[in-house]
Amino acid sequence: GALGKFSEELAIAREVGDRKAESSALNNMALVLDQRGNVEEAARQMFEKALSIFREVSDKNSSAMALINIAGIMKDEGDLAGAKKTYDQALTLCREINDQNGIATSLTGIGTVLDGQGDSAGAKKMLEQAIALDLAGGQTKPSSDKLIGLGDALQHLGDLPGARKNYQDALTLARAASDKSMAAWGLMGLGS
Q1: What SS3 state is found at 118?
Q2: Which residue in 38, 27, 23, 19 sits closest to 3, CA to CA?
Q3: What is each CA distance from 177 to 31, 131, 183, 188, in whole angstroms?
Q4: Distance between terminal CA atoms of the chain?
């Protein structure tokens, strides 16, 4: 499968001393493991190894994406303070290289962490900035995860009509994209 293919790429990259290819293979292996679930620690370790190499070869774009992935795992593990710090590092890098998608993704992560820490007003601000970046970048609709995150923050702030609208919009987008996971999150939001 995919993990075996990336493992072979890793072995070849190490054999020929190609650090950039090695970091790419590690990053891809971590993505596969993270998507499988229940292997977050292994994925995190691979992302961290890839990040070290990305930094060594001065690849700021890949460094930022690795930081975003590490922060996501930290958030899933319940380390909200660590996730916030790591998302902040990614945001700084994304701003340095003017990666608008990375900025929006970092802001989304920061927003969901802030909401988890009880700062729903701060979360709302971050998520609204992320959505504005999506729309300014030419997307006709923000992504479902941003809408769900904003819906959660609005719900925690007591704006139930606003929350409901965001959950409904997320559900509509997720269904259109056949994204069952995001559709489920949208439905859960509507049910709460």
Answers
A1: coil
A2: 27
A3: 21, 18, 9, 18
A4: 39
Quickly list H helices, the chain: 2-16, 19-36, 40-56, 60-76, 80-96, 100-116, 120-136, 144-156, 160-176, 180-191
Within 10 angstroms of residue 94's Cβ, the number of other Cβ atoms is: 25
Question: Which residues, 6 or more positions from 19, have their beta carbon under 8 angstroms from its beta carbon?
Answer: 13, 53, 56, 57
| 179 pLDDT above the threshold of 60 | no
Q: Tell me the pLDDT tens digit for each residue of 131-170.
A: 999 888 776 677 888 988 999 999 999 999 999 998 888 8
Residue 38 DSSP class: S
Q: Quick one: 144 exposed, middle or buried, by C-beta within 10 A (0-12, 13-18, 19+)?
A: buried
Rounded Cα distance, 32 and 166, in Å: 30
Q: Nearest-CA neighbor of 161 among 131, 120, 190, 137?
A: 190
Note the maximum CA span of the chain. 58
CA distance 24 to 122: 34
* DSSP code for 139: -
**Residue 78: CB atoms within 10 Å:** 9
Residue 107 to residues 38, 130, 134, 159, Cα–Cα distance (Å): 26, 6, 11, 21
